[in-house]
Amino acid sequence: MYADSTARVQDAELIREAQNGSREAFDALVRQYDQAVLRLALHLTGSEQDAQDIHQEAFLKAYRHIGSFRFECSFYTWIYRIVTNLCLDHLRRRKTRREDSAIMVDAAGEEHDTMTNVSDERAMANPARELERKILGTQIQAALETLTPRERTVFELKHYHGLRLRTIGEMLNTTEETAKNTLFRATRKLRTQLAELR
């Protein structure tokens, strides 16, 4: 907790300097949250190229709006909110195009099936288990596709990024209770989908 409050004080100092025109202070904030933002965007979009675009757009947006940062939340929550909203917009647009999110596009434009990229050292020793794992992975991916972009985002922020519902609510400009209800709906939908596939 002490380290967390120390980081928040340091962030606050950097934000104030950035608000006063210091590019170096803003660059320090970018360096601090760079990898976390890219990881979140990659996880939510499933595409390296899209994640890099969103990562860049998020920090550009943060730079343009740093003057309106009012210290009501941490910089971490603020930048995650920007990224999450950009990802939600992207997912909504993509959902209308119905792209297969199990296919990840790398920086070179090459397509890779994300389910085959997960390695299991025991795969050669037990091909049946490897096949089951791949099938389950595909089923989970298909079940995630049935969620609305908002449900999927809340589910992934909670279960893959370990964020608290209160924080997720702040990021999505809603209440903790609404985030909780969205997570409940998403979980129920996933259970139903996976039960039907059994």
**Tally of individual domains:** 2
Main sheet summary: 2 strands, antiparallel
Number of strands: 2
Which quaternary structure do these chains form? single chain
Instruction: Tell me the β content.
Output: under 5%
**Would you give the CATH topology of the largest domain?**
Rna Polymerase Sigma Factor, Chain: A
| Run of helices and strands | HHHHEEHHHH
Shape: elongated
The CATH superfamily of the largest domain is identified as RNA polymerase sigma factor, region 2, helix turn helix motif
Which strands sit side by side, in order, in the main sheet? 1-2
The helicity comes to over 70%
- The CATH C-level class name of the largest domain: Mainly Alpha
Parts with pLDDT < 50 across at least 5 consecutive residues: 115-123
Whole-angstrom Rg: 19 Å
